[in-house]
Amino acid sequence: MKLSILSTLFLAGTLSNPCHGAERKFTSSDGKELLAEIITATAADVTLKRSNDGKEFTLPLARLSEDDRKFVLAWLEKERPNMRPAREVELALEDGSSKKMPVPKGFYLSPEGTLTLYAGDTVHLEFAKEGENWGAPKVVTEVKNPERTITFAFSHQANMTLLNRTTKIQSAVVMDSMTCALDSDEFTRVGLYPTEKAQDATDSWPSKVWILQLSKFEVTDRPAGEAYGERAK
């Protein structure tokens, strides 16, 4: 008896052990089960990462059970603002030439809380808040709560790379930062002074910088200089 590729994937998935986290037991339209997590999705298909071996594969939603199709579409609606589409960016260089670089699809903000910006990205990051307590941020499509949102616009020019931070948050917003240059695959830690109370900020780097990672976000009522000094230690 011959098995389809889809059937083989689902059968292999039944051999894995239950795991924790964002994983789910998916069921195919013919009843086969698979433990996996969603990597990305569209209204027509979903890319899953199988738990037992880390293999990624894309399936049409029509091949999943009705409950799983509803789950994927609900996941897509929730995660859509955080999904970066694949694109190509043309970067102007100091010598007057240009270079095209591929920007991979993925998430702007990782589950671990790292925001990755490529040249040309603009991202709105909204922080949760309950009473006086600030919570974790999430990526939003538009600014509906400016008093809890900071916008990052990362742009590239022939002579410099710029990061504009715009916010109405009445507290300092502290973060760690790392940059990656065109001629390197490694990230280098750089100092980034916190935004002050509802004040915008602009930062610049040499034009060879085209990727920026921001992490360990903190909204604090401490003076920006004090918070920056603690991070710089």
Overview features:
233 residues; disordered N terminus; SH3 type barrels; four-stranded antiparallel sheet; 17 strands; mainly beta; 46% strand; five-stranded antiparallel sheet
Strand order of the largest sheet: 11-10-12-13-16
Amino- and carboxy-terminal Cα gap: 64 Å
Please give the domain count.
2
> Beta-sheet strand percentage?
over 45%
Report the count of strand segments.
17
Give helix % range: 10-25%
Give the helices and strands as they follow along the chain: HEEEEHEEEEEEEEEEEEEH
Q: Structural class from helices and strands?
A: mainly beta
Radius of gyration: 21 Å
Would you give an account of this structure?
This protein is mainly beta. It folds into 2 domains: 5-81, SLA1 homology domain 1 (SH3 type barrels, Roll), CATH 2.30.30.700; 85-232, no CATH class. 14% of the residues lie in helices and 46% in strands. The chain contains 3 helices and 17 strands. The protein has a 5-stranded antiparallel beta sheet with strand order 11-10-12-13-16, with no helix packed on it. A hairpin with a 5-residue loop joins strand 6 (87-92) and strand 7. The protein is globular.
